[in-house]
C-alpha cells in the first residue's frame, strides 16, 4: 500500500478530552514515519538460500513537528497521544503499518494511538518556535 497523505491536516491530540482545542491538541506541521521493519525478513531453508520473504507490518516511529504554544499543557514522555492523518487507500481492512487495537480508521482517515517517547524543542532563526514529538506506534499493543 502506498503511504500518501492526500488531504487535510494531520493532527495530534492528548489528554482525556481528546479534542483539537486548547489545550489538548495541535496541528502537525510535518511528520516523518519510519517503519519499524522497513525491509522484508529472509527465511532460509537450511542451505543458505532464502526460501521466503516475510513482510512485517509492525508499527512505526514518527517524528512530528508542531507549532509551540506556551498556553498548552503539552504531554509528557510516556503519555498516550492520538495521531490522525488522511492516508490514501486506508480502510478498516487495510491499515498502513499494521492494524490492531491501537488504531482506528473511518473514511480514509487513520488514527494511531501512540506512545510519546521523547520531546525536543526546535529552534530556527526568524521562525516560530516548534516542538518535535517522537512517537512510537505498535499494532496490537495498547499504549
Explain this structure.
- The chain contains no helices and nine strands.
- The chain has strands at 11-14, 25-35, 41-44, 50-54, 60-67, 80-86, 103-106, 109-122, 130-137.
- The mean pLDDT is 78.
- It has one domain (11-39, 50-137).
- Helix content is 0%, strand content 45%.
- A hairpin with a 2-residue loop joins β7 (103-106) and β8 (109-122).
- Strands 1-2-5-9-8-6 form a six-stranded antiparallel barrel. A two-stranded antiparallel ribbon has the order 3-4.
- By secondary structure, it is mainly beta.
Task: Characterize the main sheet.
Answer: 6 strands, antiparallel, barrel
N→C terminal distance: 25 Å
Count structural domains.
1
**Rounded Rg:** 17 Å
Task: Tell me the strand order in the biggest sheet.
Answer: 1-2-5-9-8-6
Instruction: Give me the secondary-structure category.
Output: mainly beta
Shape: elongated
Amino acid at each position: 500500500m502506498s503511504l500518501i497523505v492526500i488531504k487535510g491536516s494531520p493532527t495530534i491530540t492528548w489528554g482525556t478530552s481528546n479534542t483539537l482545542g486548547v489545550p489538548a491538541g495541535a496541528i502537525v506541521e510535518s511528520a516523518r514515519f519510519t517503519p519499524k521493519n522497513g525491509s522484508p525478513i529472509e527465511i532460509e531453508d537450511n542451505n543458505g538460500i532464502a526460501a521466503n520473504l516475510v513482510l512485517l507490518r509492525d508499527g512505526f516511529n514518527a517524528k512530528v513537528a508542531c507549532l509551540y504554544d506556551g498556553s498548552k499543557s503539552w504531554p509528557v514522555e510516556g503519555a498516550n497521544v492520538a495521531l490522525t492523518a488522511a492516508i490514501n487507500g486506508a480502510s478498516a481492512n487495510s491499515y498502513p503499518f499494521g492494524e490492531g487495537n491501537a488504531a482506528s480508521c473511518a473514511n480514509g482517515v487513520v488514527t494511531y494511538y501512540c506512545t510519546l517517547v521523547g520531546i525536543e524543542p526546535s529552534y530556527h532563526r526568524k521562525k516560530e518556535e516548534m516542538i518535535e514529538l517522537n512517537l512510537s506506534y505498535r499494532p496490537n499493543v495498547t499504549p
